[in-house]
Amino acid sequence: MARIIVLTVWIIIAVSMRHIGEAKEWSLLQAPSEIQQRLIRDPLSISLASTDYGHIIHQNPSAIFAPISVTDISNLIQFSNSLPIPFGIAARGQAHSVHGQSMARDGVVVNMTALTEGRGVVVVPDGGALGPYADVGGEAIWIDVLHAALKRGLTPLSWTDYLYLSVGGTLSNAGISGQTFLFGPQISNVHQLHVVTGKGELVTCSTENNKELFYAVLGGLGQFGIITRARIALGPAPTRVKWVRLLYNKFTEFSGDQEHLIAMNGRNETIGANYVEGFLLLNQPPLDLSFYPEADKPRITSLVTQYGIIYIIELVKYYDNTTQQHVHEDVALLVQGLKFVPTFMFEKDVSYEEFLNRVHSDELALRSQGLWEVPHPWLNLFVPRSRISDVDEGVFKGIMLKQNINPGIVIVYPVNRSKWDDNMSAVTPNEDIFYVVSILRATDFDKLEAFEAQNQEILQFCEDDGIGMKQYLPQNKTHQEWMLHFGPKWTLFKQRKQEFDPRNILSPGQGIFN
Ligand code: FAD
To answer: CA-CA distance, 28 to 46, in Å (whole number)?
Structure first.
């Protein structure tokens, strides 16, 4: 009897699963022809859209959508909305997410790079009250924005370390780098957006018009609309930079000097640094010493061996023909009184573009060795200033240094919260200064588990110790964890979702509402 009941239950489950499958098939096959003709369903394309830079999560979409125009995107979203059970839709910029954020299991991935109609970067040198700006497609990558702006002697003000990321992708997170302390993240440097909402409506928004949507989308993890155009603030471009690294053997001196440097943060500051970051050299070979002169590598290696961890401030001073004469003096003034290990200051002089595009040469080298398309178990945290020393003790020394796991690149630098707009969806710790801590590594597939276990241990340490950190580029969480992540912003985040994407269609790979 029991066997008959079990069998019957199985038959019921199997039949209903088949119906669900049919419903999914039916929905896409019944799409109007203008949508059908842009759908791609061959196995290779499906397989490419089922992975990302992380190579950790794999989710097959039902199809990839290659829009030519913004109207195509709107039609797709409206079609999904018209169904009894809508399918998920994820905009895919460059898929440089590491945890499936640009995927849509059984849904549709929108290949933003397919957009062609009315695209390109339009630079407006005299934007009246706004100053110079660029109108760029959400699918554009930042290197193209840079090239277009440089042709007019202009540049975006706030950057990411790597420029082959899409404008829509970084604006959905924050977009941070060594200029953030001065100008805020990239989301603080946008005047206006064109967005297709989760209802399929095309809306232009700014702090003046449709501001709720504007604030929702910036840092909104793709939950409220697809950014199809952004008006980005520009300023005069320098031509060259002095690129300086200072080595420290004590964390408190390193962070104290970083905070001193970011305290000079008036937008028109001429005496301060234009860029401040920092990172760690852990005594876990191989050490990346490619920045330093050959003759100095042995003494840097012995410093790392002696102290276990060396902390490095990276700062940059921009210059051009008019400031060239005194840039040397400016750098000397900037580093005066800083507490780095005497004689451990290193400097390069490179073009502005070479500096901004510095990660690309690493990418090319890694690609040539087959080391780019590998798993990337990354962890990105925002740590309140008051607890950063505890992270040094508990995470860098307490966990990472003690375990024989390649630390990869560990980036640590403070930013000023006053440069962030709390109306936006992006989440930060609640202190005037907080630190970006990015633990960026690559591994073979067979070692991935050990890296993920260490990341978990780091998160657990932060939780147990009440560090009060927030994850940047947050990875899939439980409902409870998302509520905690957004904290006081959760209610508003939910309300905005209800208003702009009530059927939970957009960016399902983030795992917030599904
Ligand atoms: P995708 O991975 O394609 O998408 C990310 C999310 O945004 C998804 O949910 C997607 O659905 C959504 N989305 C994509 N396009 C749109 C759109 N037009 N409208 C609405 N939603 C959209 N980040 C920093 O802040 N600073 C750094 O210095 C930095 N360096 C990086 C270096 C490397 C090598 C890599 C791989 C990543 C780095 N990142 C950095 C992280 C990066 O900013 C994010 O992963 C960002 O999402 C990548 O953009 P993407 O175009 O690849 O987005």
So the answer is: 15
227 CB less than 6 Å from ligand 1?
Answer: yes
* Residues with catalytic function: 96, 161, 277
**What is the phi/psi pair of residue 290, to 5°?**
-60, -25
Which of 162, 279, 411, 472 is the pocket-test mutation for ligand 1 (most atoms within 8 Å of CB)?
162
Amino acid at 276: V
User: Is the CB of residue 187 below 6 angstroms from any atom belonging to ligand 1?
Assistant: no
Q: What is the DSSP letter of 38?
A: T
Tokens of 438: 């990015």
Give the side-chain half-sphere CA count within 13 A for 367: 7
> Is the CB–ligand 1 distance for residue 175 below 6 Å?
yes
474: left (phi over 0), alpha (psi -120 to 50) or beta: beta
On whether the CB atoms of residues 352 and 240 are closer than 8 A, the answer is yes
**CA 82-88-90 angle, 5° bins:** 125
* Residue 159, φ and ψ in degrees, nearest 5: -130, 170
Pocket test for ligand 1, best of 170, 176, 371 (most atoms within 8 A of CB): 170
- Six-digit token string for 498: 């209800």
Residue 250 tokens, joined: 């004590």
Write out the chain's pLDDT in tens, 514 residues. 444 444 344 444 333 433 444 445 557 878 999 999 999 999 999 999 999 999 999 999 999 999 999 999 999 999 999 999 999 999 999 999 999 999 999 999 999 999 998 888 999 999 999 999 999 999 999 999 999 999 999 999 999 999 999 999 999 999 999 999 999 999 999 999 999 999 999 999 999 999 999 999 999 999 999 999 999 999 999 999 999 999 999 999 999 999 999 999 888 778 899 999 999 999 998 899 999 999 999 999 999 999 999 999 999 999 999 999 999 999 999 999 999 999 999 999 999 999 999 999 999 999 999 999 999 999 999 999 999 999 999 999 999 999 989 889 999 999 999 999 999 999 999 999 999 999 999 999 999 999 999 999 999 999 999 999 999 999 978 999 999 999 999 999 999 999 999 999 999 999 999 8
d(CA 85, CA 80): 8
